[in-house]
Amino acid sequence: MSALTLPATLDALEDIGQFVKETAVSGGLDTGAAYRLRLAVDEMATNIVSYGGVAEIVIAATVTARDVTVTLVDNGVAFDPRRQALPSEAALAAPLEERDIGGLGIFLALTGVDRYDYAREGETNRNVFTMRKAPAAPPT
Amino acid sequence: MKIERATLLDTIPVLRLSGELDLSTVPELRRAIRGLIEETQVNFVINLTNLDFIDSSGLGVLVGGLARVREKQGEIKLVCANRRILRVFEMTRLTQLFEIYDAEEAAARDFAARRGEAA
Fold it and tell me: Of A90, A11, A114, A118, which Cα lies nearest the Cα of A57?
């Protein structure tokens, strides 16, 4: 497992993006899956540094034969994104004058990955993003 | 992120974005859009094809810009031949809000045709 501890500032987003990109490449994700993983982690990290009121954020990655998992840990107030109301299909399809752009970040974080898990452990939030690897082509 | 400004068909401004459009770079795009509107340019193209990354803050600036130009009967047409960026628009159904083209020429031709109809 690899991990990085960063100050919870906007500048950290670049390092977090780079960490996820390198993890996705070394973990063997295809480019589409790698992009969606990075997007999901970026959205959650943006939320944490913008609203979490924390000093540090920890990012860790685990690669197995089947999947790539990235975890964000912070010690801010408890925030379970799964309890947030995501934009409905009707809201997403609304015309411009009725459309509320809010909530898209959490929506992309939760729906862009193959699996998302949240846990409150003691004083920390753990956001876990998992992407499954594409099955290898059978030998010819 | 870099923003290059050019002109299509002698009259239609285009902003060509490259690099990463996220929370740290959205102020640059917001300024560029605001600058065009202040010049009374409310019909323009934004080319996203060379973007490596866009997040919800980038989408928010584009939607905000679209709302502002439509208040003035204008339009922002997007160009995006980049599958990964386009996928983010599909996930958020913004493909229903924006006119998205594969190439700048097609977007500019549509603007020109609309002007022709209005004349």
Answer: A11
Q: Is residue B26 part of a domain?
A: yes
Helix axes B83-91, A104-111, angle to 10 degrees: 110
Q: Is this complex scored with an ipTM above 0.90?
A: no
Domains of chain A are 2-132 (3.30.565.10)
Query: Is B38 inside any structural domain?
Result: yes
Q: Which one, of B68, B74, B76, lies nearest residue B99 by Cα?
A: B76
A42's CB contacts (< 8 A; 6+ apart) are A13, A16, A17, A20, B22, B53, B55
CATH of the domain at B86: 3.30.750.24
pLDDT in tens, A13-48: 999 999 999 999 999 999 999 999 999 999 999 999
B70 interaction partners in chain A (CB closer than 8 Å): 96
Instruction: Residue B56: list chain A partners with CB under 8 A.
Output: 43, 46, 101, 104-105, 107-108
User: Nearest C-alpha of chain A: how many angstroms from B88?
Assistant: 8
Domain assignment present for residue B53? The answer is yes
Note whether B57 contacts A46, CB cutoff 8 Å. Answer: yes
